[in-house]
Protein backbone atom coordinates (compact mmCIF):
# COMPACT_ATOMS: atom_id res chain seq x y z
CA UNK A 1 0.00 0.00 0.00
CA UNK A 2 1.49 3.30 -1.07
CA UNK A 3 2.05 6.15 1.36
CA UNK A 4 2.58 9.82 0.74
CA UNK A 5 6.27 9.26 1.52
CA UNK A 6 6.53 7.21 -1.66
CA UNK A 7 5.11 9.91 -3.90
CA UNK A 8 6.94 12.61 -5.82
CA UNK A 9 3.88 14.74 -6.56
CA UNK A 10 4.55 17.35 -3.85
CA UNK A 11 1.33 16.77 -1.91
CA UNK A 12 0.84 19.18 1.04
CA UNK A 13 0.99 16.48 3.70
CA UNK A 14 4.35 15.25 2.36
CA UNK A 15 5.80 18.75 2.37
CA UNK A 16 4.53 19.32 5.91
CA UNK A 17 6.33 16.24 7.19
CA UNK A 18 9.57 17.01 5.37
CA UNK A 19 9.59 20.63 6.57
CA UNK A 20 9.79 19.45 10.17
CA UNK A 21 12.12 16.49 9.76
CA UNK A 22 15.85 16.47 8.96
CA UNK A 23 15.73 12.84 7.88
CA UNK A 24 14.85 13.78 4.29
CA UNK A 25 17.26 15.17 1.73
CA UNK A 26 14.98 16.09 -1.11
CA UNK A 27 13.03 12.89 -1.68
CA UNK A 28 15.70 10.69 -0.12
CA UNK A 29 15.19 9.24 3.34
CA UNK A 30 18.56 9.49 5.11
CA UNK A 31 17.58 6.68 7.48
CA UNK A 32 17.51 4.24 4.56
CA UNK A 33 21.04 2.91 4.05
CA UNK A 34 21.80 1.44 0.64
CA UNK A 35 25.19 -0.11 1.40
CA UNK A 36 25.86 -3.24 3.43
CA UNK A 37 28.32 -1.36 5.65
CA UNK A 38 25.72 1.31 6.36
CA UNK A 39 23.03 -1.21 7.21
CA UNK A 40 25.46 -3.01 9.53
CA UNK A 41 26.27 0.24 11.36
CA UNK A 42 22.58 1.00 11.82
CA UNK A 43 21.88 -2.50 13.09
CA UNK A 44 24.66 -2.24 15.67
CA UNK A 45 23.56 1.25 16.69
CA UNK A 46 19.94 0.18 17.12
CA UNK A 47 20.95 -2.81 19.20
CA UNK A 48 23.10 -0.58 21.39
CA UNK A 49 20.24 1.94 21.67
CA UNK A 50 17.99 -0.76 23.13
CA UNK A 51 20.48 -1.29 25.92
CA UNK A 52 21.73 2.21 26.70
CA UNK A 53 19.36 4.54 24.80
CA UNK A 54 19.80 6.65 21.64
CA UNK A 55 21.60 9.58 23.25
CA UNK A 56 24.40 7.51 24.83
CA UNK A 57 24.78 5.86 21.43
CA UNK A 58 25.14 9.32 19.89
CA UNK A 59 27.82 10.19 22.47
CA UNK A 60 29.64 6.94 21.72
CA UNK A 61 29.58 7.55 17.98
CA UNK A 62 30.93 11.06 18.59
CA UNK A 63 33.87 9.60 20.52
CA UNK A 64 34.50 7.17 17.69
CA UNK A 65 34.33 10.10 15.28
CA UNK A 66 36.98 12.00 17.25
CA UNK A 67 39.22 8.93 17.16
CA UNK A 68 38.69 8.75 13.40
CA UNK A 69 39.62 12.44 13.08
CA UNK A 70 42.94 11.81 14.82
CA UNK A 71 43.54 8.68 12.73
CA UNK A 72 42.78 10.55 9.50
CA UNK A 73 45.24 13.26 10.45
CA UNK A 74 47.98 10.76 11.30
CA UNK A 75 47.38 8.94 8.01
CA UNK A 76 47.53 12.19 6.06
CA UNK A 77 50.86 12.99 7.69
CA UNK A 78 52.28 9.64 6.57
CA UNK A 79 51.01 10.16 3.02
CA UNK A 80 52.35 13.70 2.93
CA UNK A 81 55.81 12.67 4.10
CA UNK A 82 55.96 9.85 1.55
CA UNK A 83 54.98 12.20 -1.27
CA UNK A 84 57.33 14.95 -0.10
CA UNK A 85 60.26 12.54 0.06
CA UNK A 86 59.53 11.42 -3.50
CA UNK A 87 59.40 15.10 -4.58
CA UNK A 88 55.97 14.52 -6.06
CA UNK A 89 53.18 17.01 -5.55
CA UNK A 90 55.39 18.99 -3.17
CA UNK A 91 57.33 20.00 -6.27
CA UNK A 92 54.40 22.28 -7.13
CA UNK A 93 54.74 24.32 -3.96
CA UNK A 94 57.48 26.72 -5.06
CA UNK A 95 56.22 27.30 -8.64
CA UNK A 96 52.69 28.03 -7.38
CA UNK A 97 54.03 30.46 -4.78
CA UNK A 98 56.10 32.27 -7.42
CA UNK A 99 53.05 32.49 -9.69
CA UNK A 100 51.08 34.07 -6.84
CA UNK A 101 53.83 36.59 -6.16
CA UNK A 102 53.84 37.58 -9.84
CA UNK A 103 50.17 38.66 -9.82
CA UNK A 104 50.08 40.48 -6.48
CA UNK A 105 49.14 44.14 -6.28
CA UNK A 106 48.62 46.33 -3.19
CA UNK A 107 44.86 46.50 -3.71
CA UNK A 108 44.53 42.78 -4.42
CA UNK A 109 46.67 41.94 -1.40
CA UNK A 110 44.37 44.04 0.80
CA UNK A 111 41.21 42.43 -0.58
CA UNK A 112 42.51 38.87 -0.22
CA UNK A 113 43.77 39.60 3.30
CA UNK A 114 40.32 40.86 4.30
CA UNK A 115 38.75 37.69 2.89
CA UNK A 116 41.23 35.30 4.47
CA UNK A 117 40.58 36.89 7.87
CA UNK A 118 37.07 35.40 7.70
CA UNK A 119 38.67 31.99 8.12
CA UNK A 120 40.80 32.97 11.11
CA UNK A 121 40.63 31.54 14.64
CA UNK A 122 38.44 34.42 15.84
CA UNK A 123 36.03 35.30 13.02
CA UNK A 124 35.31 31.77 11.73
CA UNK A 125 34.10 30.38 15.09
CA UNK A 126 31.90 33.45 15.56
CA UNK A 127 30.38 33.04 12.08
CA UNK A 128 29.84 29.33 12.69
CA UNK A 129 28.18 29.96 16.04
CA UNK A 130 25.90 32.69 14.67
CA UNK A 131 24.74 30.51 11.77
CA UNK A 132 24.20 27.44 13.99
CA UNK A 133 22.29 29.37 16.67
CA UNK A 134 20.15 31.13 14.06
CA UNK A 135 19.20 27.82 12.45
CA UNK A 136 18.53 26.26 15.85
CA UNK A 137 16.18 29.09 16.83
CA UNK A 138 14.34 29.08 13.52
CA UNK A 139 13.90 25.29 13.55
CA UNK A 140 13.43 24.98 17.30
CA UNK A 141 16.06 22.24 17.30
CA UNK A 142 19.39 21.89 19.04
CA UNK A 143 20.89 19.70 16.30
CA UNK A 144 22.42 22.60 14.26
CA UNK A 145 24.39 23.74 17.31
CA UNK A 146 25.47 20.19 18.18
CA UNK A 147 26.54 19.38 14.62
CA UNK A 148 28.48 22.62 14.26
CA UNK A 149 30.16 22.24 17.65
CA UNK A 150 31.23 18.66 16.89
CA UNK A 151 32.42 19.54 13.40
CA UNK A 152 34.47 22.58 14.43
CA UNK A 153 35.94 20.83 17.46
CA UNK A 154 37.06 17.95 15.25
CA UNK A 155 38.60 20.22 12.62
CA UNK A 156 40.44 22.17 15.33
CA UNK A 157 41.78 18.93 16.80
CA UNK A 158 42.93 17.76 13.36
CA UNK A 159 44.72 21.06 12.79
CA UNK A 160 46.51 20.91 16.14
CA UNK A 161 47.54 17.27 15.71
CA UNK A 162 48.73 17.79 12.15
CA UNK A 163 50.84 20.83 12.99
CA UNK A 164 52.36 19.07 16.00
CA UNK A 165 53.25 15.92 14.06
CA UNK A 166 54.78 17.62 11.02
CA UNK A 167 56.05 20.99 12.23
CA UNK A 168 56.52 22.21 8.67
CA UNK A 169 57.98 25.68 8.17
CA UNK A 170 55.83 28.24 6.37
CA UNK A 171 57.00 29.97 3.18
CA UNK A 172 59.74 32.58 3.75
CA UNK A 173 58.53 35.88 5.20
CA UNK A 174 60.10 37.64 2.22
CA UNK A 175 57.55 35.87 0.00
CA UNK A 176 54.54 36.49 2.27
CA UNK A 177 52.09 39.35 2.67
CA UNK A 178 51.83 40.76 6.23
CA UNK A 179 50.58 40.22 8.85
CA UNK A 180 52.87 37.23 9.20
CA UNK A 181 52.15 33.97 11.01
CA UNK A 182 54.61 31.80 12.92
CA UNK A 183 52.73 28.58 13.71
CA UNK A 184 53.59 25.38 11.77
CA UNK A 185 52.37 25.38 8.19
CA UNK A 186 50.88 21.88 7.75
CA UNK A 187 47.93 21.57 7.43
CA UNK A 188 46.25 24.90 6.70
CA UNK A 189 43.80 25.55 9.53
CA UNK A 190 41.99 28.20 7.51
CA UNK A 191 41.40 25.80 4.61
CA UNK A 192 40.41 22.86 6.83
CA UNK A 193 38.02 24.85 9.00
CA UNK A 194 36.46 26.62 6.02
CA UNK A 195 35.75 23.29 4.32
CA UNK A 196 34.18 21.83 7.46
CA UNK A 197 32.14 24.86 8.53
CA UNK A 198 30.91 25.64 5.02
CA UNK A 199 30.11 21.96 4.53
CA UNK A 200 28.05 21.71 7.72
CA UNK A 201 26.16 24.89 6.88
CA UNK A 202 25.42 23.56 3.40
CA UNK A 203 24.29 20.21 4.83
CA UNK A 204 21.94 21.86 7.31
CA UNK A 205 20.48 24.09 4.60
CA UNK A 206 19.92 21.40 1.95
CA UNK A 207 18.01 19.28 4.48
CA UNK A 208 15.21 21.85 4.27
CA UNK A 209 15.51 22.90 0.63
CA UNK A 210 12.89 21.41 -1.69
CA UNK A 211 14.33 22.19 -5.13
CA UNK A 212 17.40 20.34 -6.44
CA UNK A 213 18.61 23.53 -8.12
CA UNK A 214 18.62 25.31 -4.79
CA UNK A 215 20.47 22.44 -3.13
CA UNK A 216 23.04 22.38 -5.96
CA UNK A 217 23.59 26.14 -5.66
CA UNK A 218 24.03 25.83 -1.88
CA UNK A 219 26.64 23.08 -2.16
CA UNK A 220 28.44 24.94 -4.96
CA UNK A 221 28.57 28.14 -2.90
CA UNK A 222 29.97 26.28 0.12
CA UNK A 223 32.60 24.58 -2.01
CA UNK A 224 33.55 27.84 -3.71
CA UNK A 225 34.00 29.53 -0.31
CA UNK A 226 36.22 26.71 0.98
CA UNK A 227 38.32 26.60 -2.19
CA UNK A 228 38.72 30.38 -2.25
CA UNK A 229 39.78 30.37 1.41
CA UNK A 230 42.46 27.79 0.75
CA UNK A 231 43.77 29.55 -2.36
CA UNK A 232 43.91 32.84 -0.46
CA UNK A 233 46.39 31.26 1.95
CA UNK A 234 48.66 30.28 -0.93
CA UNK A 235 48.27 33.64 -2.66
CA UNK A 236 49.35 35.50 0.49
CA UNK A 237 52.32 33.20 1.03
CA UNK A 238 51.03 31.99 4.39
CA UNK A 239 50.90 28.34 3.31
CA UNK A 240 52.32 26.00 0.73
CA UNK A 241 49.94 24.50 -1.81
CA UNK A 242 50.29 21.02 -0.28
CA UNK A 243 49.24 22.39 3.13
CA UNK A 244 45.96 23.47 1.55
CA UNK A 245 45.41 20.34 -0.56
CA UNK A 246 45.75 18.06 2.46
CA UNK A 247 43.56 20.39 4.54
CA UNK A 248 40.78 20.14 1.94
CA UNK A 249 41.08 16.35 1.93
CA UNK A 250 40.97 16.15 5.71
CA UNK A 251 38.03 18.56 5.83
CA UNK A 252 35.99 16.53 3.37
CA UNK A 253 36.79 13.30 5.20
CA UNK A 254 35.80 14.74 8.58
CA UNK A 255 32.65 16.24 7.09
CA UNK A 256 31.68 12.79 5.81
CA UNK A 257 32.20 11.37 9.30
CA UNK A 258 30.04 14.08 10.92
CA UNK A 259 27.21 13.59 8.41
CA UNK A 260 27.37 9.82 8.90
CA UNK A 261 27.11 10.28 12.67
CA UNK A 262 24.08 12.51 12.17
CA UNK A 263 22.45 9.94 9.89
CA UNK A 264 23.06 7.22 12.48
CA UNK A 265 21.38 9.37 15.10
CA UNK A 266 18.39 9.95 12.83
CA UNK A 267 18.18 6.20 12.28
CA UNK A 268 18.07 5.23 15.97
CA UNK A 269 16.28 8.17 17.59
CA UNK A 270 12.79 7.58 19.05
CA UNK A 271 9.88 8.34 16.75
CA UNK A 272 8.76 11.81 17.75
CA UNK A 273 5.94 12.36 15.30
CA UNK A 274 3.34 10.20 13.57
CA UNK A 275 3.94 9.13 10.00
CA UNK A 276 1.54 10.35 7.35
CA UNK A 277 -0.43 7.49 5.81
Please give a structural write-up.
Residues 145-259 form the Phosphatidic acid phosphatase type 2/haloperoxidase domain. Keywords: Membrane, Transmembrane, Transmembrane helix. It comes from Micromonospora viridifaciens. InterPro entries: PAP2/HPO, PAP2/HPO_sf. This protein has 277 residues and is mostly helical. It has one domain. 68% of the residues lie in helices and 1% in strands. The protein contains ten helices and two strands. It has helices at residues 12-19, 36-52, 54-85, 93-102, 106-116, 123-139, 143-166, 189-206, 212-235, 241-268; strands spanning 24-25, 28-29. Strands 1-2 form a two-stranded antiparallel ribbon. Strand 1 (24-25) and strand 2 form a beta hairpin. Helix 7 runs antiparallel to helix 8. It is globular and about 60 Å long.
* Number of structural domains: 1
Our estimate of the beta-strand percent is: under 5%
Discrete helix count: 10
Order of helices and strands: HEEHHHHHHHHH
Choose one word for the global shape.
globular
SS content category = mainly alpha
Tell me the radius of gyration: 21 Å
Catalogue the unreliable spans.
1-19, 272-277
Give the strand order, joined by hyphens, for the main sheet.
1-2
Number-wise, the strands total 2
Describe the biggest sheet?
Answer: 2 strands, antiparallel
Protein name: Undecaprenyl-diphosphatase
Transmembrane segments: 55-77, 118-137, 144-166, 186-207, 219-240, 246-266
Domain Phosphatidic acid phosphatase type 2/haloperoxidase: 145-259
Pfam family, one: PAP2
